[in-house]
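Slide 14.
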Amino acid sequence: TKLLLILSPCKNDTIRILIDELVPIKARYRVKDVITAEPQSEVRVEKQTKDSVILSWSTGRYQARIWCFPFHIEILCEDEVIATFNPKNKLWFETLQDEDGNALWKETFRQFVDYKTNPSSVGADLRLHGFSHVFGLPEHADRLQLRDTDDEPYRLYNLDVFAYALNSPFGLYGSVPFVLAHSSNRTLGAFWLNASETFVNIHYSIDESIPPVKKRRTQPHTDLHWLSESGVIDCRILLGPQPKHIFSQYAQLTGYQSLPPLFALGYHQCRWNYDDEADVKYVDAGFDLHNIPYDVIWLDIEHTDGKRYFTWDPVHFPKPIELQRHLQRKKRKLVVISDPHIKLDPDWPLFHEALGSGHFVKDRGGQIFKGSCWPESCYLDFSNPATRAWYSRCFSLNNFQGSTSSLFVWNDMNEPSVFDGPEQTMPKDAVHSGGWEHRDLHNLYGFYQQMATAEGLLTRSGGQHRPFVLSRSFFAGSQRFAIWTGDNVATWDYLKISIPMVLSLSVAGITFCGDVGGFVQDPDPELLVRWYQAGALTPFFRGHSAKETNRREPWLFGEEVTAAVRNTIPLWVEFPAEEDTFTMDNEYMIGALLACPITDPGVQQVQVLLPSSEEYDVQSLKVHKGGRTVILPVTMDTVPVFQRGGTIICRSTGSGSCSEDFQKLPLSLTVALNSQ
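Slide 15: predicted structure.
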């Protein structure tokens, strides 16, 4: 089978390598709706022989050398090779068979059988020259720097993983096939645009001999090997050369982090589930009584009428509009859940409408796919634009009876979770709109639901108000919305791993992320305080817990805990919500602030690595010289946070009950001087 290579340099200093069959027997799936813009550069042919061609673009700073035998592509910057595609000849493109053939491929996983008519896997390797540190590939409960995968590759396959394993390359709720490589001299990015199950191997090498372009020398390199179950080879190399350029290039490709509504930056209180309207009002009053500011209270699935989304339990939530207005009078919001499955109930008008309009995923036999997720359910086909448009309309005030403009939404179980499916998800041979198998677009499913939800909320307001939508599942481009770190456990190890998880997401463009307290098990008071302190220094700040756990409202842990939690909240309200860069697993930047949360029990002092500049303690305003490690005492109500010299931070000079109150308070500027 002949393959077609398309090499496309872009104006934002990225280059796309696309490989597909020249004359395909059957079309292969190509990811849509993720790339937002990709302006092409004018390409010049600098030199051509029977075995190779050299291309240049832009100002001529970058070149691409394409070699035929053996096939590989070298990317050069100012005559230096910085990346090589297919250096180890691992290019893999499984040939589709004749569609008239009788062969049927079958794989068995436990009691599940996966049928497919054609083999379709693709893969390639990429060498990043001069690098020994790479980051990205969320979501995994692992350290920030990606490991050498001698034992097991990183897996990108969205799954509902309850109480997930730590320090593991196993895939979790979302997938972003993006890697950032960084050295003291250069930063590169690699984006593998494929939504099927994907494995990524990483191998660090100490030294290599560089072919003599200008001179001969040795340097480290990192080899990446991507392998996906289906689709095409669609790889983009982001040329940097600095981290800020990579972040900008990636955002230009997949979308910028959306500015959230102001209330979303405040504290969120969530539980599976608050019992009824009186319980919600009791918790709301508790925050006022204990002088703890918060913005949003959340309802899980039990608020619905028999687990039918877009409905309310008539016994426990009989007056939802009055409840929302009660919260709105205090400038607070309500968030309710909306999962991707629809209860199989022929008497329910919403189910009947979705069925009649063809909005459900089908099984391989052409029947409506049915699976278990709470009730027996059918699953909406969010890959279909018509289904997304219909789902968006469900959020209008007319269609969602009992909703108001102060109600917002979270999308859960959207990997999608199928309790009786293989690996607790949808079978790969389920069929979507256009005849595409679920295997082709699995990792996009949650992304598409979140897109439809956000569009529904935006349309509801006539385009006047920013939507807030939280999703558990995600893909590249989900930075337009918000995500959380899933069903974690209330232990110190999960608190510790939450920081590199959030940083890994931030490297891949998703900065509005986080969660507090551990979903399952019961934290002790010290752990709860430390998790709140860490959560106050992450963009998304929500306390969340399962219904089997003890209640988690802060004041239930005593006055010492209540006071400590009360003191953590203003830090996030006062300061910006943007990651600048990455440093270590336990320290990170929030704009001009360096944070070092406490993630171990019984800590009385902590080591903090300060960068090479002056750093001011935000509590004492004491200045510390940078470029060294300092040892600082800590108590239960303190966490090390520093302002970098040479920056200005805007603070609110007062307190309030929610984020909207802070808009009316005076502001002060804290100017931190540097040595210059």
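Speaker note: Residues 262-566 form a domain with the TIM Barrel fold (CATH 3.20.20.80).
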